[in-house]
Design goal:
The chain crosses the membrane at residues 21-41, 47-65. With 87 residues, this protein is mainly α. The chain has helices spanning 2-11, 14-43, 47-65, 67-81, 83-86.
Length: 87
């Protein structure tokens, strides 16, 4: 039990641990900034800018924080569109 825990600590190097810690903090700050800007635009009744910013923030958050989702969506979409031709 102790050796498997020790091995997992040795496998995950300090750079990987730092990336996880900093990535989660940056994600939290990004989410806070998105909320603040969205509320400001909504309060000013700039609904078009609010919708545009919300869509932009969603795209940026997916590309930066979950890039594997983009590749899986692309492959699933290609398979869905061209499944008749692939058979």
């Amino acid at each position: 039990m102790m050796t498997s825990y020790l091995m997992t600590l040795l496998v995950a190097g300090p750079g990987e641990k730092l990336q996880e810690a900093v990535g989660s903090e940056i994600g939290s700050l990004f989410f806070l900034a998105v909320i603040f800007i969205s509320l400001t635009l909504f309060w000013k009744r700039a609904f078009t800018a609010f919708i545009g910013f919300a869509l932009f923030a969603m795209l940026v958050s997916v590309f930066i924080f979950q890039p594997e989702l983009i590749s899986s969506l692309g492959s699933d979409g290609f398979r869905w569109l061209f499944e008749a031709y692939l058979k």
